[in-house]
Specification:
Blueprint (H helix, E strand, L loop, with lengths): L1 H7 L6 H20 L12 H72 L3 H10 L6 H21 L6 H33 L3 H23 L3 H4 L4 H5 L1
Helix pairs in contact: 3-5, 3-6, 4-6, 5-6
Length: 240
Amino acid sequence: QLLAWVNGMSGWKTAEAEEEEVKPVEEEKKKDEDKPFVRPVLRRQSSNNEKTLLAKYKEELEALESKKAAAGDDDEVVRKRLLLQVTEKHAMLDESVQRRIAELTQASSVFQQLILDCQVESAIKEADVKAQHIGPHSGRDAALAMGWLEVNKEKITASASETSIELKKLLSKHSVSVNNELSFLKQMALAAKVVAHVTSPMHKKLLNLCHNWLSTFLPHCLAKVNRVSFGLLSMEDCKA
């Protein structure tokens, strides 16, 4: 009864009807399978269009290659011109630095002679050396020292045996300033020489990075001797 009810429902196809619909499709498939395989015929296209396109692309490629070579030549010319300018500027800088070093060397020898004549104590000189450090400000301090020497040289020479403590301290301080400027100029001359002869930007960046590590980062890290200085204390350590 259930099967009869299902078969009597509208829209439901019987097994016989489905088989009738499937048979034509299967017969078409069998016909296609029985047909012999025919290899498709490849027709060669006209070669005139291919030759024209190939010649066009070759011309464009040659034009691009010539532009590339011209751009490379221009870059090489610019690089050589800049390198020549850097060499000339370095020569001018080196000449100026060497002239200034000669002046400071002469002033340093005068200061050393005055220190010997005035019998400046070694403790004063050591204190000045520790108090001052080399840097860009050394040029200002050296200029003040040389101006002070020009004004007070005759006065100190005339009364070397009766020099006061304050004058001895000034003499030692200005002598250290001149020596610091000498050291700074020698360092700058060396740095300028390296930069002038190192043409690769990557190598210059590496040199600057090494300088920063040696002069800033490494001393900073070595100065941190414990976890307190680094700020690595845990909450338990802080509570304790």
